[in-house]
Amino acid sequence: MRVSELAQTGGVTAETVRHYTREGLLQPHRDPRNGYQLYDIESLGRLRFIDCLRSLGVSLPEIKQILSWADQGTVEFNEPVPLATQRRRLHLRTQELQVIARWLDNMNQDKMTESFCLKELIESLGTGKLVFEANDSRSDH
Fold it and tell me: Which residues form the HTH merR-type domain (predicted)?
């Protein structure tokens, strides 16, 4: 895949792919015929992994360290893993995304109830009290 193809498939901009390449997070191969940077399926996996970590607030230097460990096949860690400090946030983000996905599913299936509107969804994300989970049984009626 070329830069634009990787970017589109990975859901980021071409500039983001170029930036991650300059930072050494992605390692393309050069096409000897034209000099284009080519990315493989492993690059797509790395890009998605980087994007997930960035959404959790993990810094690029920390991501670089994590990818270095992966490249070396590290199994045991002699220093704290940066991602470990994000565990609680990761679980919360997962719950939030599941609530939004359920809300969208119900909206698409015309199962919306008067008791659960978009405003409530947004407020529940702000308070951390994920309203849709509590009202989920009502959406089946």
Answer: 1-69
